[in-house]
Design a protein that fits this description.
135 residues, 4 helices
């Protein structure tokens, strides 16, 4: 048999289809509008809390009606690539974007306590960097 017939083309991703169906059913049980409202509330809470950190800037609009649950934060003087492992050890995940900009993702399954933990980890990273400057 000649190519391409001698090779198995592929199998359909049945598990992916089943998982997608279950995810859609789950979201429909919660309600898409309920998910949207919770995302907006959590994003607003995160913006309010994180902007209490001196020198931290939210990249983009602070209007939650024009955002999704992705927050890019700019922490001048603290490289994003250093924040990522510092936070990961403390079970908080940041995605370095560029220079001093990191991104966090917020969704309806997150809690206010988790957002406060993000804030705490950022504050600890800042304190540690200030201690290092003194050495």
């Amino acid at each position: 048999m000649a190519a391409p017939y001698k090779f198995e083309a592929t199998s359909l991703n049945y598990l992916g289809f089943i998982g997608l169906g279950a995810a859609i059913d789950y979201m429909n049980r919660i309600g898409i509008e309920n998910i949207r409202r919770r995302n907006m509330m959590l994003t607003s809470f995160a913006i309010d809390e994180l902007t209490k950190i001196p020198n931290l800037k939210i990249v983009g609009t602070k209007d939650v009606n024009k955002r999704v649950g992705l927050l890019s934060i700019d922490l001048p003087g603290y490289p994003a690539i250093l924040l990522m492992p510092f936070a990961a050890i403390r079970k908080v995940i940041f995605r370095p974007v560029k220079d001093s900009i990191s991104r966090i993702s917020i969704h309806y399954f997150n809690t206010e306590e988790e957002i406060l933990r993000v804030k705490f980890v950022i504050e600890q990273a800042i304190k540690l960097s200030k201690i290092r400057e003194l050495l």
